[in-house]
């Protein structure tokens, strides 16, 4: 059984100043750091909470820090992104924690100690689960649990090492805790939507068991969500690549994924408000896509030659607005791709990660949108898989596309292919987003969305 934890919630003056030089070097190297390409020039402290006393053998601080960086070209002035850090403090790091090292502190309250990313360390990770189990309130931190859901003690933590935008810890193959790294005030869809779906008894999404929030200056920040761990599940991306490598068809799985997507959309439309998008909203939608294309073409020079041809997908949408077409908009997943789908050993599909596109403002991510947007995301993902494989297989992606849309239509009664203009606009918009994402985060992958851009810009796209 886990040792009882004393949680003090004290804060420590001078703490950030002593960590500043180490964090400036360490933070930009983290996969989840959102401000890549611009140096960090300093930090300001949003909140610091001592979870284990720093003068003990193992100290633990929960920090919310704002990273100051020069503004990206053309960006609106803003105060800098706020990050959630869990800082462990020890005399020296045991070799198993070497990958977690942040550095050795020279001065200030932690002088002479070693600080590290505490999520790698089982003991601090246990502290978080224990706080959720006991619904602790420490300083501005609120550890909250869904009524009626229990968390048992003694679950052994391990950090998920897969590439992700946040950081997750699995507890005894029973729960997974996702700690959001770049945090913003307000209702976070990564908690809001799974909770709404759980209340609708939608079986396609793991139901949140507990969550961590911060209350700061009258604003609420969602910091993390604990949900059941789907043991033995494989993500759709891995599965798709595996089937592609074997030359196998993915049609049955793609159809099941289409059905799962429709189940989630149907439940979200029941749970949360829907709106009709008329002329004005459709124009705004098309204008937004055109603006994103212009910004993307500024940021990624390889996109520029294709920009005029890509515009046509968005002007076609604006033309439909002029003809009086309307669509129903609702809450959607917002960043659906194969990596967000998990298949259980029993063959059922689950959707995860309802955070939306991490780079977009929260208000935009929470707006009702046409469900076709999620569908376009999945179709782009089949295309990604087909173009990452050797040999590449456009036919495989086309077969997945047909099966996925049919599966979606079976459950929802609406085949996304009956909306070709909207679908094409969203697929183009997503491919443009991906070009920017890959240029920033994984330049080696840039040819994958660029292959789609070339196709979409051709006189008669697929
Ligand atoms: N409920 C779950 N059960 C099993 N594995 C999960 C679960 N939720 C997430 N994962 C795994 O953790 C990884 C990261 O989760 P995700 O929510 O996508 O985080 P991020 O937003 O940081 O990318 C996923 O790729 C998935 O493999
Ligand atoms: O999963 P995240 O919320 O972090 O999403 C971001 O990263 C994804 C990559 O990890 C990125 O997805 C793109 O690459 C996938 C293959 O790795 C592919 O399946 C997707 O279709 C493609 O968009 C996603 O766009 C980004 O927001």
From TrEMBL:
Keywords: ATP-binding, Carbohydrate metabolism, Glycogen biosynthesis, Glycogen metabolism, Kinase, Nucleotide-binding, Transferase. It comes from the Bacteria. One of its GO terms (biological process) is glycogen biosynthetic process. InterPro entries: Kinase-like_dom_sf, Mak_N_cap. It holds the Pfam family Mak_N_cap. Pathway: Glycan biosynthesis; glycogen biosynthesis. It is an enzyme of class 2 (transferase). GO terms for molecular function: ATP binding; kinase activity. Residues 26-121 form the Maltokinase N-terminal cap domain. It catalyses: D-maltose + ATP = alpha-maltose 1-phosphate + ADP + H(+). Its EC number is 2.7.1.175. Monomer. Belongs to the aminoglycoside phosphotransferase family. This is Maltokinase.
